[in-house]
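PROTEIN–LIGAND DATA SHEET

This sheet pairs a single protein chain with one bound small molecule, flavin-adenine dinucleotide, given as SMILES. Inputs appear in the order they were entered. The predicted three-dimensional arrangement of chain and ligand is reported afterwards as a token string under its own label.
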Amino acid sequence: MNQLAEEFDVVVLGAGPAGTAAATALKQQGKRVALVEEDLWGGTCPNRGCDPKKILYTAVEAKRRAELLAQRGLKSDISVDWPTLMANKREYTAPISSATKQGMEKAGITTYVGHAKFLTTKNLQVGDHQLAATNFVIATGQRPGTLDIPGQEFLQTSTDFLDLDEMPAKIVLIGGGYVAFELAGIAVQAGAQVTMVLHNAHPLRAFPQQLVQGLVAELKDQGVEFVENQAVTEVQQTADGFQVTGPNGFSQVTDRVFAAVGRQPNVDNLGLTQAGVEYSNQGVIVDRHLRSTAAHIYAIGDAAASPVPKLTPVAGFEARYVAAQLGGRDDEIRYPLVPTIVFSLPKLAQIGMTENQAQRNVARYQVKEVEMTNWITYKRQGEKQAQVQLILDQMSGLVVGAACLSLEADEMINYLSSLIGAEYSSKQVQQLLWAYPTTASDLQYLY
Ligand SMILES: Cc1cc2nc3c(=O)[nH]c(=O)nc-3n(C[C@H](O)[C@H](O)[C@H](O)COP(=O)(O)OP(=O)(O)OC[C@H]3O[C@@H](n4cnc5c(N)ncnc54)[C@H](O)[C@@H]3O)c2cc1C
Ligand SMILES: NC(=O)c1ccc[n+]([C@@H]2O[C@H](COP(=O)([O-])OP(=O)(O)OC[C@H]3O[C@@H](n4cnc5c(N)ncnc54)[C@H](O)[C@@H]3O)[C@@H](O)[C@H]2O)c1
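PREDICTION REPORTED AS:
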């Protein structure tokens, strides 16, 4: 081992939700912990992901709710003041990085600023420092993917969108996943003319297509244009913007073009080969203990090729699990149910078994669609899309999966998460009382 190396029990690479949670839990065990970050402390979620997105979303959701009540007695002429909204977002995000770093240091974690790269299986380099450790935790996250086409340098990302000084008059969003649907809702309500360009006809493929079609219909109603089956081949800069082109004469002139075509794990410049760690384009390959192919090196969060959605609560769960493993536990990871929400207008949420999975065993699983637009919860708000889909296991009689589309879908999915996770039967649900009339009290009619 290099004599100049600074020694630790564990070195954590990346200070996002995964890395900070792991470092904190490991420090609480009394370990000597180093945490390395090359960019913003706190990582994607609070700086350029979930939280800034939700701040912008809060304003556009309020505007949409007011619009829906326009025929129901609420007079409103609301518009989004983007510069002020952005100032509000920046006021929130500006202190995050330094506060997170300070918080880590206050907890007794040794922090390093710079790019971490393995030199050997036991050593890594950060700037002028060499760090040696018994164990390492890779928590380097993901970055926005792009398209390998002429003019790719003109493509912007979700990071750019979430920090726009002005909302452009026209934008093109390439992609049909979480990011594209969330940014479309924000941009259209902030006054932009939005075109979503999809390379196939299956947006949000992991969600029930009936609910996705409801979301698409709602976004179209708000003014979003959808172009399907169009693989963009080139982006050119013009005198006053950009021209997006594709096969069969497709051409769209716009002010900005955002690629929302998935994210790539930050694993390619980590010296993983020197460390004996194998990886794929899904991230670091891990076993059921989140150990990489080098058994003393773990991977968690977005950087790990673990078979779960890449979300902040999952990153935290994996971090606490690995800390417990390094503290002496030796059980395989068992994930709880993972709720996911697309914060579009309206919201689309899902948990547990999906419709696609249920359809592989129709003898056992029944898909139940519930249209709720006329229920008091939704009617009073003028909501146009309020649907729930439940997956029933006919063997146990339990609900094992659910998806929701409405402005209340974020709350509803969390209630369903508790009930499905605790394996509540219909009979048990009828024994519970929720204050009425609320989103929760509808559960009685759903089960
Ligand atoms: C636009 C957007 C919206 C999102 N919204 C939601 C949401 O609503 N809900 C939700 O649950 N999830 C959401 N996510 C996903 C969520 O942000 C991620 O799942 C979460 O941040 C993953 O945490 P992580 O710690 O694994 O990775 P990250 O947060 O990406 O942190 C990794 C850190 O490692 C650092 N790093 C990388 N390489 C190195 C290196 N070699 N040396 C040192 N440091 C390095 C990076 O700079 C980064 O700070 C969203 C993501 C995006 C992009
Ligand atoms: N609310 C949330 O929880 C939330 C919000 C945003 C992001 N995220 C996380 O970030 C991840 C990334 O989000 P995302 O929307 O970038 O990815 P995604 O995987 O959800 O969607 C990518 C989309 O891009 C399309 N695509 C792929 N290659 C393409 C190509 N060459 N040309 C055109 N389209 C192409 C896909 O068909 C898909 O529709 C999510 O999977 C999720 O883990 C979560």
